[in-house]
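Subject: complex prediction, re-run

Hi both,

The earlier run crashed halfway through, so I resubmitted it with identical inputs.
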Amino acid sequence: MTGWRMARAPLSLRQRLLLQLLGIAAMLAVLLYFTVRTVAGQAAEATQDGILGAATTAIAEQLRAGTEQVEIDLPYDAFSVLGSISEDRVFYRIDVGGETVTGYEDLPPPPEATGKVGPQFYTRPFRDTEVRIAAVTRQVVVAGQALPVLVLVAQTRQGQDAIAERIANRAAGLGLGFFTLALLLSLVAAGSVLSPIDRLAEAVARRGPEDLRAVDASAPRELVPLVGALNGFIARLRAALGRTETFITEAAHHIRTPLATVRTQAEIALRQSDNEATRQTLRGVIRAVEESARSATQLLDHAIVVYRSDRMTSDALEFGALVAGVVASIEPAASLKDVDLRLSPAPQPLPVTGDRALLESAVRNILDNAVKYSPEDSVVRLSLAAEDRRAVLRVEDRGRGLSGLDPASLSGRFRRGGNVADVVGSGLGLTIVTEVAAAHDGRFSLTEREGGGVCAEFSVPLQ
Amino acid sequence: MRRILCALAVILAPLAAAAFPVEEEHVFPGTGTGSELWILSTTDTEYFAPLLTAFQARHPSVTIRYTVTGSASVYTAVADEGVACDLAISSAMDLQMKLANDGLALPHASTAQLPDWAQWQDRIFGFAQEPVVLVTSRKALEGLALPRTRRDLIDLLRDHPGRFEGRIGTYDPLQSGAGYLFATQEARQSDSFWRLAEVMGANRPRLYASTKPMLDDLESGSLALAYNVLGSYAATRAAHDPDMALIEFEDFTLTLLRTALIPKGAQNPELAGMFIDFLLSPEGRRLSGQQGGLPPVNEAALVQTPRLRPIRLDPGLLVYLDRIKRRAFLEEWAAAVKQP
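This time it finished cleanly. Structure:
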């Protein structure tokens, strides 16, 4: 059930921010609408009540004590002014001593006497409509007797309803405008709030693979812990890489030096011993030491390749010169086996870009293999050429070949062919070559030769 | 022409059902069995006939019954008797206002644009405005300057005691709704009304319930002055009688609206609404002004002529209809005019 939820990408910060801001804006807009409507409605009602009350009071103030009865004179303007805001129907009623003397007798009286001088307002259904009524009570003394006079003026509220509707429409427009403005401002605000994060991400993404400096982009307070953690991580990584490099160098030194000593001692002992059994043993020791030294070299080579391929240098190199250098270093080992290394250089220079140590390691491993698997007193041909914008090194031997094995499977780490049990090897050589080729956008292939042997082809792009 | 003659066939027989006094009743028969539009009006048929026939020309199947009565009768017919007429047309704006205020008028969504003082809600529609004027006989005032203001008239009457004895005509506000409206509005506008009433009262004025006999008496010479006459009627008479002079007082001249409303009991309110829209349409305004002699509502004319004071359609009109107020006003008026 939760599968689809987990599959959904989490909301981006921008989306979250926008959604929340818009949610708030929508709430405020609705609140604004109702507030404006309510306040304006109340204001409209207060205005109309004010006029209604004034009209009622104006009539009440025209009441005079006559000799026999209360004199009533309706002021024209009191009624006329009621029509000034809206065209509403007007009703009135005047009671003297509890009896209706003029007006609409069925106009509802106020619910209770308040004893106030000011008008009392209430809303009642009246005939076919509903009216707002203002009531004013006055005492008028006629012939020594105080008579209560009740003045009621009522007005329908169609005009106020129309005003309320108009205000509601305005308020709705106002709310909508407010929301639209908030939408635009939210977009700007989200962009501005998130810009430090974007800047930081960009600063980190722009770094090269070897750039392990601390991130020093100025970050807002909330991002300072993140930047701190990132910098701590980078520092630890840098230290770890440094330690690895030191370890590899130290290890190479600490393994190869004692092995070389053991070998020298064993060779001296071999020369000094006449006992055939002892000599046999010493030869075994030398062989084992050789194997160990070789393995150690290759392991270290491989470690360096792995370590360096993440942080390769890009040197401008001449591929021919590089190969010639390696050939010169292999020559002594080859001559021990009477293997003749014949290098045919390319007619033109072969400029390439790459890591010198890695490329040398790859070429050395190819030549090493070729020499190792060649029978004694044979020839290994090396040829250099520029083909299809690539510098190509071909190494052809007359060794035991691949015996039908898949060349790709030989590139696996610690994999060796099935026909090499008698030859010293770690199975790392071709792995190194393949990895160096991959790191340099190069190619490496092994093919069986006609008449026995293998042709190894290594190429990297020309500059 | 034949059609009009036919349409103007006067039916003088009073309706047995109607409790109000019918002055005239005309039926304009439509073709076939169309519905009937019954108009109860204070406006004389001759002024309305062009409008009625033009409306009928557009809706030939409609039969129009046009009944003329007094403005007080129009009110009582609708308010008290529940007469099922489709349209009530009256010059007594206050009574029309009271009908609508008391919920006895139906709303009509008119397409016409009227100034707010000439319309109340969507229930009362003013379609003609006319000044309330003084009509004099030039012969009777021979040698005297025509009065231009109420003050002039007061002076004229004071300076010539006896000359106008019994020769002044005006409405009886007790009998005529329009007369009561003019008197009350004038009293509201200016104190000179009461002084004038007293001066007229000294000349024993003759009181009329309607305009026609007043103008008849002026034409025959038995009256020298007719005070507060509806401008449209007077103008029609004056057009034929060069002896008559119409005077719009310069201090102020009340301007009355003839209004129409659809009573609650109307049988054909849609038809009545169509007639109101026709009255207010450009065609209706043209016919009413040029052929009927009822000038249409025209705000620009009021602005250009400052002496004209329109009586506004607003709840203030209800004040003088209050029974206490009315009694007090009439008592005061009687005391001023009916001097021993």
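Chain B has two domains: 2-129+257-312, 131-254+319-337.

- K.
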